[in-house]
């Protein structure tokens, strides 16, 4: 009987052990996946190790290097210190580019027409030329003389001046008259004619102004202008002006006439201050220049 009781005790103990194991196992296979995981605390550590400068341990569930490793992917880890590349600035749209004004070039002195400018815009931008008076003075002209030089190429008649003026080889002009040179001086008086060497304008006054600007090429470098008179003449326009270069100056005039040719004709006269006794001849040229008829 003693052996029977021992066997019953062993069987009861085994049964109790089996029941305990069954109760410890989960009732469903996915029970572990459904259990919530507490997020790591983001509060700054206050331990004495952190205050002393030691690096705090990584929160539970995070790798010690601070990288975030996506679960279930093959993507590389992204560390918090990784630099983010800057995006390029967007290119301006067509409307924005069109709204921006295009800078205009500054005309260079001595040129008849700067790129991007009309002839008159280049004229008004030339620092060598002052502002043209809104109401310019008019010259009192003498009675024109009878003797003229016929410039058939330009379609104009040029007053033929007497002594001490002399006719001279015209090239590159069609006609030319000069005063004798003074000893030690390169400048001397001259009267020339040719088709206008600039772009003719609708208004003969503008053509005369452009022609006056062009004549600075025939004066010493650095010459500037002071406007004197401007007026309509039969067949065109006449302008007189003073040209200054250093301590010297000249008295000059341009007469633009429509002689029925391809371009208007130009009569230009200039006399330096070293020959100022002949300055009155400038008005003789203005009054005597006319269209060939």
Automatic annotation (TrEMBL):
Spans annotated as Disordered: 30-115
Compositional bias of kind Low complexity: 36-64, 74-101
Protein name per Swiss-Prot or TrEMBL: Uncharacterized protein
Natural source organism: Nonomuraea endophytica
